[in-house]
């Protein structure tokens, strides 16, 4: 195993398997040769006649996690990256950046806890999405207790070994979602000018857009009225510098900034809804409107900012003809609100769930100023006259669901009320026989391919146009950029002097 934890001269760790009432506490000696037999024995333990036995070594912990990894291969969750050589820990682009900030013992412990929490959350989803007949005892409390004990033991060893912790810092880096071979094979340098020309044309069209007129052709969506009395008066910051709020405060912030959404109507495909599965596990689309929520953090000019992420879905982007490059199954919009330290919006940006069409909207009261590096792919950006402490109104075009305007007008039509739900729900949707993720292990949504992939694949973006999972949104066809990169906004904005 790369980056194995070093052995010490101390007595080897003994890991107690805690069990639920009716089960025994057992200690198992597991070696690579006896792994399958011992694991099967562990999962079949009941409360009768058990005795304590010598237990797992570091190597057996590796094998236990390897077994779990193999059993859940079909339901692998792509939101976090496995850290090669370290069991029970997963990383994100945020966590990879925080690695360099984890200096003090408190910061190091918090950082390792974040990596562990990623794995615990993802593995629980992977287990739950397996058919019951394929779990092979993975959900047995005794087995889970041993995994947790192994993970905690590894963390303790890392905290006591600076050299090993430095190795983990390097290993926690997350690979980008670009294909190096595609860029080489596709003669990317020769096609770059064509991509740049297309992007410049899109940006020019965006700059000439004018405010739409409210009329009966616009369908108006509004969130459920929610109490915002628990809004934080100021943020607290954890040991790594990230702004923190409790659950009630976060709910109030999401309610405060939940957008009003006006969608131009041309067909049933212009109605917000939700992806779901039928009892046979086939994907369908429900017309019940739901906006999915998620949080993130961004660093701008050395300061961390909390982000609120809202995602909506449409049944499809209808094709205008069989050769329509952009049409296909499922479409949507992701709207992100970056907050200042008083909980007001300092920046808005949006993409489609394919990672395409990244645009910025800057409140006139914001302290940020657009400042793009010369070689960066251009991004449409517009100053918007909004009260940054109140929700924005989004105006989306029919068919392509492009975000054409942002203001704070309230439509005269009777609103349709949308529900708000955690984005993580899409990683474990019910289908009558259990649960299933909307996403494949590579983070893509099956069946959402677009014909544009045959033109844009030399950019290196994996499956251009396909809808994808949070953490897998490559946003640039020129250069490299990811929507969840905590330094992305800093590439385009800085605080006004």
Cα distance, first to last residue? Answer: 50 Å
> Low-confidence parts, pLDDT < 50 over ≥5 residues?
1-57
Structural class: alpha+beta
- Sheet with the most strands, sense and barrel status: 13 strands, mixed
Q: Kindly state the percentage of residues in helix.
A: 10-25%
CA-based gyration radius: 25 Å
Characterize the overall form: globular
> How many beta strands in the DSSP annotation?
21
State the oligomer. single chain
Task: Give the integer mean of the pLDDT values.
Answer: 86
**Share of β-strand residues:** 15-25%
Tally of separate helices? 10
Number of domains: 2
Give a structural overview.
This protein is of the alpha+beta class and 497 residues long. It has two domains: 32-171, no CATH class; 180-495, no CATH class. Helices cover 25% and strands 22% of the residues. The protein is built from ten helices and 21 strands. The protein has helices at residues 35-43, 58-71, 93-98, 105-128, 141-159, 162-171, 180-185, 188-207, 247-257, 453-456; strands spanning 81-82, 90-91, 218-223, 236-237, 243-244, 260-264, 272-277, 283-286, 290-300, 303-317, 328-339, 345-351, 359-363, 368-370, 381-384, 393-396, 403-407, 416-422, 429-430, 435-436, 493-495. The strands form five sheets. Strands 3, 6, 7, 8, 9, 10, 11, 12, 13, 15, 16, 17 and 18 form a 13-stranded mixed sheet that branches. A two-stranded antiparallel sheet has the order 1-2. A two-stranded antiparallel sheet has the order 4-5. A hairpin with a 7-residue loop joins β12 and β13 (359-363). The longest helix has 24 residues, at 105-128. It is globular and about 65 Å long. Residues 1-57 have low confidence and may be disordered.
